[in-house]
Amino acid sequence: MDAFVFFAVLTAALFHALWNAGLKVRISPGIAITLMSVVAGAVALPLPFVFGLPAPASWPYLAASLGIHLFYYIALAEAYRTGDLGQVYPIARGSAPLMTAIGSALLLGESLGALGWGGVVVLTSGVALLSIRGGHALRAFDGRSIGFAFATAATIAAYTLVDGVGGRLSGNAHAYAVMLFILDGLMMVVYGLVRQRSEIVSAFSAGWTLIVGGGVLSLVSYWIAIWAMSVAPIALVAAVRETSVLFAALLGVFLLKEPVMPVRIVAAGLVLTGLVLIRLH
Q: What is the pLDDT of residues 23-38, one digit of tens each?
């Protein structure tokens, strides 16, 4: 992977970790994601005048991405409602890059080679370990929570593949990204009014500065990813994006004074090893 693209995606992963850290305020993740999506759409609203519109060939992918994103929001909310964070998050974030790599190989014919596959598998293993915070009693695993966690991972892999191809067909990945944010923001306005009307106003009033900041960071983070997938293998970009979990762990240690556990040191080593293999690809 080209050095500039590699470090751009690492920056996107950092931004992703920062806005996720903002979810530690007393706002439910579902409400926060809805509001941040609306903010991202509002920020993107004037940008088609700068970047223009994506090519017609990419519009079916925009439509598909919106549908997949809606299922992602619903699956994620249900996964967190029926299972514990320590159970759901490792499955959702740890398996998504591997699903994306398999999908890109089977559906798009992308060849990663030994180094690429090795990097994806090692990094994914590290992400899964990093996601396990420990220290809390977990519910017994049940089919419903596991099912929604894997459904979340599948939707992450699906919209990653769809947006990667859509960005390539758009003629301008920036135009595709901007239009996706606008349409996604409009969709989440409707979704919020239908499903969360009584909560979104009070939640925004309670933490609007954090929500606005998170919305901007989420926009920039995925914008970089869409552009990167237009110039680099989608599976490798998806894997490097998951280093957001490593950044989140570091933020937890240095800012929130979370304990440093041996398993997380090993996990960080796996993530870094995976990154080196991907960079050498």
A: 555 566 677 788 889 9
